[in-house]
Amino acid sequence: xxxxxxxxxxxxxxxxxxxxxxxxxxxxxxxxxxxxxxxxxxxxxxxxxxxxxxxxxxxxxxxxxxxxxxxxxxxxxxxxxxxxxxxxxxxxxxxxxxxxxxxxxxxxxxxxxxxxx
Length: 117
Known about the structure:
This protein is mainly beta. Helix content is 0%, strand content 47%.
């Protein structure tokens, strides 16, 4: 069964950090670019970051540039999103998906990130 499973979300105070994981099962992540998206209540889904499959090219939305870092460990079939200096406006459900463009074949179920004091 092909799956992407996110983990690592939770409640954190402003200025804190979280590391999200996107683990693949049923297929090898090596050949896929991976994107992170987020969706806050009442807002459209936003592309947060993306990492290419082979040469490590990374993309970040302006809203997270300098605070978030995307990385991958192909040996663990996992992509990570390190989130530092978190702000209340980062509160959202974060999901990962294959692909960095328009087409995303596989999606995870999402993990909740809440930034609040």
